[in-house]
Amino acid sequence: MDNHPSPGALEDLKIIELPMLDAMPFFAASWAGKTMAELGAEVLKIEPPKIGAQDRRYGPIGRGGSDAETRALHLYLDCNKLSATLDLNDRRGRDLLMRLLDGADVLFNPNPPALNDRMELSWRTLCARFPRLIAVSTTFFGTDSRYRDFRGGDLVATQMSGVGYETPFNQVTDPPNHPPLRAAERQADYMTGYTAAAAAMAAIEGRKRSGKGQHVDVSQWLAMVSTIRINVGELSHDSPRAGMHRRLFVRRKTNAGWIYPCRDGFISFRSSPGNFWEGAVRMMDSPEWTRDPLFETETLRLKNSDALDALLTSWFMEHTKQEIFERAQAQGVPCFPLYDIREVAENEQYKARGFFQQCEHPVAGRFTMPGPPYRMSRTPAAIRRPAPRLGEHNAIIFCERLKMPRDQFEALQLEGVI
């Protein structure tokens, strides 16, 4: 951790992150809060008393303490945040939340619309009460869509958006027996979180001009749709007879592959268009088969992609992924190795960029975790504090900031409201 961090780009912002109270795991709000906390914003994570937020129940268990304090997902997503506990099903808990929102800039709320309505936490209620608040809803299908009350989740959004349908891209040779793949971990949650954080920043800029807050409605489904912009363009502007247009409907492989096996694993490799092909030929030291009329033009290479894939694979199987990567890079051919987790952790590029960061936690001890996917020179992201213990900042938040008498604070703790 950086004991003397530079000023954070967002250090003037106060953000409140609500827990997901529905049983469906959903980490979009937590990811959005993390994104802004690492840039210096004060993010207060509200958690249910005793059990904590969902983050504390997922991921590998660390050493040295209880599951709730050492789960890897919690240690990662909640780094730099404050933790206060409130029972939002209790009227007194919601009243305390209202007092906290009075001084907040942004609220990240991941709960379903119907649940928010029952708890009087709908965006309409909050925006009317707090005119400068930016209320960000992260839901499965949007707060006012026709699907607003449907159950969703990572798998549903991945498939419904079209991302799952085309995964693995250009690799499917037997559609009836090759179902769409599930994306690893919870990528739709995290994509939704990044979308929510970016949209919140746009709303903050808007507030500088208007002086007013607003509601930001972030749908997990549509956040995932935004990742296939090329497909939308193909379907709306390309000819129905075009190869890519047809492939979007049939899933079947229609040209040279993108993922190939090699001697020690797999690589991603692109041999089209023409300038990439010329580099690929040089990379392989111009084998005789590359001069075959079957591969003379890009159209012919696409038409004969099965034969081309077989020959490329034969060459790749004689080389390691690092060898192929270096040769391809030298010739300007798009290529990268497919790494396992250990190889990612040991990657020289990540080391040179300082991507992985050390964190010291009072319960979990010292560990390494990924940093942000960007670098800022004057206001860099930093680990300013480790993930909080459950309710670690209760006394600071309720007694010091809200001026709650100590006896009232202790009584609410005994009753499970705090």
Describe this entry's structure for a reader.
- This protein is an alpha/beta fold.
- The protein has 2 domains: 14-226 and 354-414, Crotonobetainyl-coa:carnitine coa-transferase, domain 1 (Rossmann fold), CATH 3.40.50.10540; 259-344, formyl-coa transferase, domain 3.
- It is built from 19 helices and 11 strands.
- Strands 3-2-1-4-5-6 form a 6-stranded parallel beta sheet, with helices on both faces. A 3-stranded antiparallel beta sheet has the order 7-8-9, with helices on one face.
- A hairpin with a 3-residue loop joins strand 10 and strand 11.
- The longest helix is centred in the middle third of the chain and has 24 residues, at 187-210.
- The chain is elongated, with a radius of gyration of 25 Å.
